[in-house]
Write a structure and sequence with these properties.
By secondary structure, the chain is mainly α. It is built from six helices and no strands.
Amino acid sequence: MKHSTNQQTRRGRGPARRIGRTLAFVLPVVLVLSGTLAVTRVNWSGNSTDPVLTAADTSVGSPRVAKRAPQDVLRDKLLTELQEEDPGVALTHLQQAVNGRPSLAKHCASIARALGQAAVRVYGPTRAQSYARPVCDTAFATGVAAAHS
């Protein structure tokens, strides 16, 4: 008699256990498929007139504010300083910015090159070269040489 009671108890759990196992298998598959479909629906190029959200569209419902990268902001600020003062001041501020924010170090050479090229446009190649110093290796001098040749 005890044996039949155990079988009834096990059978009572049988359908619920089967449903649970089925859900445990089906639910992740459904989630993966719906995620895949959502990703394929996004316009990753960012240049469509389709009302579908683009991958870069993070501000839904609010006006778009172009957030600029810190290195771009720094480069523009230093280019303005170069024109208003001189390349030496801009190079000093570049070195101070890189020392203050080490994450900018990987952009230092490209910013110094841009400063060198702008210095040639503003001061000419000879005078621009006179401002060269070892900020970001020789990137400023490289920019001067590239703009001069």
